[in-house]
Design brief:
This protein is an alpha/beta fold and 121 residues long. The chain has 6 helices and 5 strands. The protein has a 5-stranded mixed sheet with strand order 1-2-3-4-5.
């Protein structure tokens, strides 16, 4: 059995892996991703928003557009994984199932660290 066959879920970064940075997915990659979704759970992560996912990928994946069974194997992790979305067949929309935004305290620490790094010659 190959290593890929043993994996329960396969995760991809979108930009630079499935697509050129911030560009629409190409038809050949779309077809490959749909084939993979027939066999495995797939997680897609990006720094982009869910709206960007829609335009860059979801509107172009025929298996997703057609509402095939493949869509049940797809998990979206936009905004660097701070939100987790699954397709809800009842509402026919992507539903937020988990969210982990940065707390104000962590945001402040990150900003202070960035400012310190940028100011250091």
């Amino acid at each position: 059995m190959t290593q890929a066959a043993q994996k329960a879920i396969i995760a991809f970064d979108v930009d630079g892996t499935l697509t050129e940075s911030k560009q629409a997915i190409q038809p050949d990659m779309s077809a490959l991703l749909c084939k993979l979704l027939l066999k495995k759970r797939v997680a897609l992560i990006s720094g982009a928003s869910l709206v960007r996912f829609q335009a860059q990928l979801l509107d172009l994946l025929q298996c997703v557009v057609g509402g095939g069974d493949e869509i049940d194997n797809l998990t979206l992790l936009p905004t660097n994984g701070s939100g987790c979305y699954q397709y809800d067949r009842e509402t026919r929309k992507w539903a937020l199932i988990d969210e982990m935004p940065l707390s104000p305290e962590i945001k402040e620490k990150v900003l202070v660290a960035f400012k310190r790094i940028i100011a250091d010659p």
